[in-house]
Write a structure and sequence with these properties.
The protein is mostly helical and about 350 residues long. It folds into two domains: about 25-185, Orthogonal Bundle (Cytochrome Bc1 Complex, Chain D, domain 2); about 190-325, Orthogonal Bundle (Cytochrome Bc1 Complex, Chain D, domain 2). Helix content is about 35%, strand content about 0%. It has a two-stranded antiparallel ribbon with strand order 1-2. The longest helix is centred in the N-terminal third of the chain and has 19 residues, at about 1-20. The radius of gyration is 21 Å and the shape is globular. The structure holds heme C (2 copies).
Length: about 350
Amino acid sequence: MKAGLFLGLFILMASCSFQESNCNCDNRSAKIRTYGILKQPAIPADNPMNFCAIELGRKLFYDTRLSQDGSTSCGSCHQLSMAFTDGQSVAKGAHQKQGNRNSPTLFNLAWSPYFMMEGGVKSLEMQSLAPLLSAHEMMGSAQSLPTTILEDPCYDQMSQTAFHRPLDYFVVVRALAQFQRSLVSLDSHFDRVMYHKTESFTPAEQRGWKIFNSSTAKCSTCHIPPLFTDFQFYDIGLKDTLDLGKERESYHSSDRFKFKTPTLRNIELTPPYFHNGMVDRLDSVIALYNRGGDANRAQKSHSIRPMNWTEEEKKDLLAFLMTLTDWNAVQNERWLPLSE
Ligand code: HEC
Ligand code: HEC
């Protein structure tokens, strides 16, 4: 009975938002869903969240007209079904131009203190400008938005409702930031075991979780739950020597080959792995940690060293990592392109 009522309400809400999705939208203020696991994140004072701005950001996120050749949107490299990654080792942008980095997930960025793998970008608002204008990504022009976008009456109406001004880059970066802040993934098997205590680990998952936290493996010292990152930068001994990592931003040679610790949430859905997608499979990532990385350099983290795990221990660790998949998040229709 209760479930039926809930379902009915849900469908009602879904159909309302569908009808309204085109041009009219709801400018009431919005909050980020935290699932009782994290605190509300700090939101920039000049970009308070409202539902209409989030919907506008969603429309922009999937609009290929924002790229110079009309081929690429944010959603081309950040696809919901792959937890907002793209399955490529390194991303390809407008005119098929190849970048040199692997597209990262966009979940839970509302809690991120800075962005990009060297952490050089301080806000999500600023971050959006990088792909919009980058030569490897969308190749847009900083002077003005494409006329096809400016002439779209729907954009104009949504922009007026959400921001009380016509659509321009001021609006675009704020709306994109709001849409991205709304992308939360905190509803995995792990969360139900750890925070809500409504499910329990299998024996293999439990053993894997123990290894993850152990003083030998030390995974959880860098990949700290619940976000599974410490937002710090490390050289973990990967062979790639082309990408200087954090040194590109700090100009300190001691930062060479250091990259921001990525989250491990939805890791099952985001191959290939590492900053340049050099490793295809999760069991190969575990094998790499087991041998203590592939390159020993002065700045390499001391936590990364040979582990001598048994086959069973490797499987257990893998089983634990699979508990971080959030099937509800990656099937959330509110994060798919708006139906026109
Ligand atoms: C051509 C593929 C491509 C396109 C198009 C693209 N991105 Fe990305 N995105 C990437 C890659 C690759 C990175 C990693 C860059 C880095 O850290 O150096 C990235 C990084 C990011 C980050 C930083 C995430 C973090 O954890 O620090 C955000 C946010 C982001 N993109 C949002 C967007 C938005 C918004 C758009 C559209 C305006 C967009 N991206 C378009 C490939 C793409
Ligand atoms: C010293 C900090 C540190 C420790 C300890 C650590 N990691 Fe990492 N991890 C990182 C960094 C940094 C990266 C990204 C490296 C890169 O791309 O260059 C990473 C990447 C990963 C990736 C790939 C993520 C992706 O999206 O590409 C996985 C999976 C992973 N770590 C799992 C583990 C496991 C399992 C352990 C324990 C055995 C562990 N890590 C221990 C810092 C650490």
